């Protein structure tokens, strides 16, 4: 017999039956909430999620792993932060927002939200494209002259 992996919501006022939720649903909720925090550049993904994003399919649950131990829900969140942000402030804001969002949407309480900062991403200067010179293969030298 397969092990039950769904999360059962404890609703005493619902006498019609029980409500079950797949852990992937909780991961998606937490992934979306975490990516909306100021200072978060992106969530960590796997090679397969990166390939899926190239084809237009986004995996909102990437970067979140969920563990249910003795009825308590623990989340590990793996993020890349923008350069220059305060890591403790962003991590604390993320912990509070994830707990609040999950409680609001599912009535589940997170016992732990562990934030793992995987890296820091710097902003790159945008490449300036001259629309009048799209097909020029020559590169300008240091003085701006074509070589």
Q: What overall geometry do the principal axes of the alpha carbons give?
A: elongated
* CATH homologous superfamily (4th level) name: Cation efflux protein, cytoplasmic domain
Give the radius of gyration.
22 Å
Strand content: 25-35%
Tally the helices: 3
Structural class estimated from helices and strands: alpha+beta
CATH class: Alpha Beta
Strand elements, count? 6
Order of helices and strands: EEHEHEEHE
Distance between the termini: 72 Å
Query: Could you name the ranges where pLDDT drops below 50 across 5 or more consecutive residues?
Result: 46-54
Question: How would you sum up this structure, described in words?
Answer:
Strands 3, 4, 5 and 6 form a 4-stranded mixed β-sheet that branches. The chain is α+β, with helices and mostly antiparallel strands. It has 3 helices and 6 strands.
In short:
The chain has helices spanning 23-35, 47-54, 87-106; strands spanning 7-9, 19-21, 40-43, 64-69, 72-82, 110-121.
Overview features:
Alpha-Beta Plaits; alpha+beta; Alkaline-shock protein; Asp23; 4-stranded mixed β-sheet; two-stranded antiparallel ribbon
Write the layout of secondary structure elements.
Elements: E1 7-9, E2 19-21, H1 23-35, E3 40-43, H2 47-54, E4 64-69, E5 72-82, H3 87-106, E6 110-121
Parallel strand pairs: 5-6
Antiparallel strand pairs: 1-2, 3-5, 4-5
Helix pairs in contact: 1-3
